[in-house]
Specification:
The complex is a heterodimer. By secondary structure, chain A is an all-alpha fold. Chain A is about 70% helix and about 0% strand. Chain B has helices at about 1-15, 35-45, 80-95, 100-110, 125-130, 180-190, 220-230, 240-250, 265-275, 295-300, 305, 310-340, 345-355, 365-385, 390-405, 410-425, 430-450, 455-470, and strands spanning about 55-60, 65-75, 120, 135-140, 145-150, 195-200, 210-215, 260-265, 280, 290, 470, 475. The radius of gyration of chain B is 30 Å and the shape is elongated. Classes of the chains: A mainly alpha, B alpha+beta. Chains A and B meet through helix 5, helix 6 and helix 11 of A and helix 18 of B.
Chain lengths: ~375, ~525
């Protein structure tokens, strides 16, 4: 097996990458808040979504740990055979490229909406995609270090949420479950769809130095980002009340209201800067994952030359995906919660089915690392 | 593309390296010395092309002056008094009772010379190189060997204050051009036999002595071996300054950032040696090179460690701020006045807008113009003879500060920005980092003029990606920050008190050897049963 990616990352870096991947999607454009009934108790939906995601991710990561030295692309073929395995791998790769495009578009339209309305959105996406592809080209270690720098900053900047405490009115939260549990399940589906971007861990796991800590750090990452999410939904409602749904970028609006000593007014520049960097790192990670996946799938010698073409693909896709902002929001709220779980969970279910069948039917099959993995599996996990 | 270029360059240098070792320009074959003194003398004269300053002094020694001997040296490279009293006088006086040339030779070599460092050689060309190195060679008729005496004595600069890194507190000594003096400055600070000095001779024509210094038991042996290997593969005609050496051994030859730290201060050298790094000292250059270098080292001044730690930490924080300012301030000005006027408080932006109303240029042209003028003034300030220095400052202050403003060429805010940038860039303690910041400022300004703050962010992000890929002798350039090492944060932006700095950086393997014994926080003595509690 050719060693395409030589980097090794620590489990702390792994956790930071997970934080980056999740926080990008929701911090500024807070999709699960918009266009829904019953916004006042939105945190219930968030909590349900986090619990479900925790369970699903536990399963996905545990399954990946059955193959401690292979990426999901590599073991998909050893589990499902050449044909089905390649299809599963291509689906995942396609999803990562697609998701990078969605993230790029979200970033671009937020920039246009909030800061530079006269600049075409393409400019922001091209620049970010180029820089991300450049970062992805340098390998996983660079992306991991970037994540470290950014994730710490983002989690710190979540403390900004506590600043407008004078404007908070917790009475706003009050009617709990006025419309029953229904809207919350929809919300939870949005959250789960966002957390399922973690399917990318299938590419990262074999490069983590200390595998025993992977599960623990996955849980920590989900809980931290879940805590930020819940805090965000509570603070937004406490400050804005039911109006929180009416803004496209509610968090940004919240931070805009903060002034320090009536002189430092526009401090949203700091969280936005972090968020932009975050987005770039996130796109870089997905571009890295899809380039490496493609290279492994087709048995190439290097994955680096693929990063710029995939960056270009991401740019094109992000322009073609949505005609306008309404369509983008529609995707985030109506399409993504069904499309992403079906795709990701479907692929992983297929892989798991193949894996179990192999385990049952062909226990002594000499194909690749399968027998060794079965023995090593449980020890590796805990 | 750059990568391909580097690969090509590497391949080229590889193919050069793989040539048969030996006969390149400037090196001589091994030629044995002759028994006949006249032949040896002729050959040495021939090797030096009968140079004007070559002194071949014939001395008659032995009983009744029966044995001819030859004392050879270069006139201005030796201490003449030393040669006459410690060598010539001695060999003439002491050998008066001897007749056999071989006995004379061995007696001179072993006991008669009033010198500490004496060696012997059979090789004519070794003799020639030793003479060129400022040593004196003694040859005796009938003996095919030569005694090499260390008599170097040329004028050198006195140890003085370092001119590029001055401090208020701390040693005032700076390194000088002489390797021996520099080594003595370092040895005097670390009086330990584990301080190792390895000598390399680099430069096939210049034969420059270069020393690799490290502390055995603290430095990581792998890193030292890598340094040794990189030094020994240099094939070049001459090394005149450590900057040349730096370009041969650095990790990232095409990066704008320096991956070796250079310093003029012996205390900085020893401080880094004690943290497990190594130093390379080049004869003829007062700048030592230190590696593995990490980014935070370039923003560290020796004073941080000598002042009390509160002051040290705050000043260091200030320095990081200054670094960011000197990098981004002009581009921030461009971005904010062009795109994001709303970011400034209204009265301020109104005042800036009122000034800019008169200015014929767009903000980016104004900024680049002023930055170039400032760079010109700075460069002129370095090159001008000291006597003319005042003229530059008058021109700078009057022409730029007053006339350009009055003529409406630039706005007052721009002058403030340029001045602040300039002052911030002087704060960087290591000049080589300040140079790269000077270069990187201009692309950032252009990006800011095109895309505003987003452009600055994009520029900084690509810069950071580059910094994250850099390594210095295998150690990541941004080491304690990313990859994040929690234990080393005590000496990055903040400087922990000395009694808490108990560990060396992570790349040092010998972690068992702690720096500071635990539990040394100074405490006042436990109060005894005080007799007068009111005191």
């Amino acid at each position: 097996m050719k060693q395409l990616e030589k980097g090794r990352i620590s489990s702390f870096q792994y956790m930071c990458m997970l934080l980056v991947v999740r926080i990008t999607a929701t911090t500024v454009t807070f999709p699960f808040m918009t266009d829904h009934e019953s916004p006042t108790d939105a945190w219930i939906g968030a909590a349900i979504g986090i619990v479900v995601s925790l369970v699903l991710l536990e399963l996905i990561v545990r399954f990946s740990l059955n193959f401690p030295n292979m990426t999901v692309i590599q073991y998909s073929q050893s589990v499902l055979g050449k044909f089905l395995g390649s299809i599963a791998a291509l689906l995942l790769i396609g999803f990562w490229v697609f998701d990078a495009a969605v993230a790029g578009r979200a970033m671009g339209s937020a920039m246009v909406n909030a800061f530079m309305p006269e600049t075409p959105v393409l400019v922001f996406i091209i620049v970010t995609a180029f820089l991300s592809a450049n970062g992805a080209r340098q390998g996983l270690e660079i992306t991991a270090r970037w994540s470290e720098l950014v994730a710490v900053g983002v989690v710190m900047s979540a403390l900004l949420l506590a600043l407008p405490f004078q404007a908070m009115n917790f009475q706003n939260l009050l009617p709990i479950l006025p419309y029953g549990i229904g809207p919350h399940l929809k919300r939870a589906a949005i959250i789960v769809a966002i957390f399922l971007r973690y399917s990318v861990v299938g590419m990262i796991v074999p490069y983590v130095h200390n595998r025993k800590e992977i599960l623990r750090y996955t849980r920590i990452a989900v809980l931290i980002s879940g805590a930020v999410l819940i805090a965000q939904s509570i603070v937004l409602v406490a400050v804005f009340g039911a109006r929180a749904t009416s803004s496209a970028v509610p968090t940004l609006q919240l931070v805009r209201q903060i002034t320090i000593g009536e002189f430092f007014e526009r401090i949203e520049i700091f969280p936005v800067t972090l968020w932009l960097l975050n987005n770039g790192v996130n796109m870089g990670l997905f571009i890295w994952a899809s380039s490496l996946g493609l290279a492994q799938l087709f048995g190439l010698n290097r994955f680096e030359p693929l990063t710029y073409p995939i960056g270009g693909l991401v740019t094109l896709l992000s322009m073609l995906l949505f005609k306008n902002y309404v369509e983008q929001i529609h995707y985030l709220i109506r399409v993504q919660p069904i499309f992403v779980p079906v795709l990701v969970l479907g692929v992983y279910a297929l892989l798991y089915a193949g894996f179990s069948i192999r385990k049952l039917v062909l226990p002594k099959q000499g194909n690749l690392e399968a027998p060794m993995i079965l023995e090593a599996g449980p020890d590796e996990i805990e | 593309m750059l990568r391909n270029l580097v690969r090509k360059i590497k391949r080229f240098s590889q193919s050069e390296r793989n040539k048969a070792p030996g006969e390149t320009r400037g090196t001589y074959k091994h030629t044995p010395l002759s028994h006949v003194l006249e032949v040896n003398e002729a050959r040495i004269r021939q090797a030096f092309g009968d140079s004007f300053d070559l002194v071949c002094r014939r001395v008659a020694i032995g009983k009744h002056g029966s044995i001819a001997a030859l004392v050879v040296h270069l006139n201005e490279m030796v201490n003449p008094q030393f040669v006459s009293t410690a060598i010539i006088e001695r060999i003439v006086d002491k050998t008066e009772h001897l007749t056999d040339p071989n006995t004379v030779y061995t007696q001179i070599r072993d006991s008669y010379l009033d010198l500490t460092d004496v060696a012997e050689t059979h090789d004519l060309h070794k003799v020639a190189y030793e003479i060129a190195n400022g040593n004196t060679c003694i040859l005796v008729q009938g003996v095919a060997k030569a005694i090499v005496c260390q008599t170097q004595g040329y004028s050198q600069r006195e140890v003085s204050q370092p001119t590029t890194e001055s401090t208020i507190r701390g040693s005032k000594e700076g390194l000088v051009e002489s390797l021996a003096v520099n080594l003595s400055l370092i040895r005097r600070r670390i009086r330990n036999p584990n301080l190792r000095v390895e000598q390399f001779t680099i430069g096939e024509v210049s034969q420059t002595p270069v020393a690799l210094v490290y502390i055995e038991g603290i430095a990581n042996p792998g890193i030292v071996a890598e340094a040794r290997q990189r030094l020994s593969r240099i094939k070049v005609d001459s090394i005149q300054e450590s900057g040349q050496l730096e370009e041969f051994i650095e990790d990232a030859p095409l990066s704008p950032f320096p991956t070796l730290l250079r310093t003029e201060r012996p205390d900085r050298v020893t401080g880094n040696l004690l943290e497990g790094r190594f130093a390379i000292i080049t004869d003829g250059s007062p700048f030592a090179l230190i590696a593995p270098a990490t980014f935070s080292m370039f923003l560290t001044a020796p004073e941080d460690y000598f002042e009390r730690f509160f002051a040290g930490s705050v000043i260091r924080l200030l320095r990081y701020l200054a670094f960011l300012l000197s990098l981004t301030l002009p581009s921030l000005y461009v971005a904010i006045t062009t795109f994001h006027q709303e970011l400034l408080p209204t009265p301020l932006i109104l005042s800036i807008a009122a000034q800019r109303n008169q200015i014929p240029f767009p903000a980016v042209v104004e900024a680049i113009l002023m930055e170039i003028v400032f760079e010109l003034l700075r460069e002129a300030g370095i090159r001008l003879p000291v006597i003319l220095g005042q003229a530059v400052s008058i021109i700078g202050a009057l022409v730029i500060g007053e006339a350009a403003l009055r003529a409406g060429l630039v706005s007052a805010a721009m002058v403030v920005v340029v001045a602040l940038t300039g002052i911030s860039s002087f704060v960087t303690p290591i000049f080589s980092l300040a140079i790269s910041v000077r270069l990187l400022r201009f692309p950032l300004m252009i990006l800011a003029s095109a895309l505003g703050l987003f452009g600055i962010l994009a520029g900084l992000a690509s810069m950071l990606t580059h910094l994250l890929t850099l390594r210095s002798f295998g150690v990541p350039y941004l080491e304690p920050i990313a990859p994040f090492v929690a234990g080393e944060q005590r000496d990055v932006v903040f400087r922990a008190p000395w009694w808490a700095m108990n560990r060396r950086p992570r790349f040092v393997e010998e972690q068992t050897d702690k720096r500071v014994a635990p539990g040394q926080i100074p405490r006042p003595p436990e109060p005894e049963q005080t007799k007068d509690p009111g005191r």
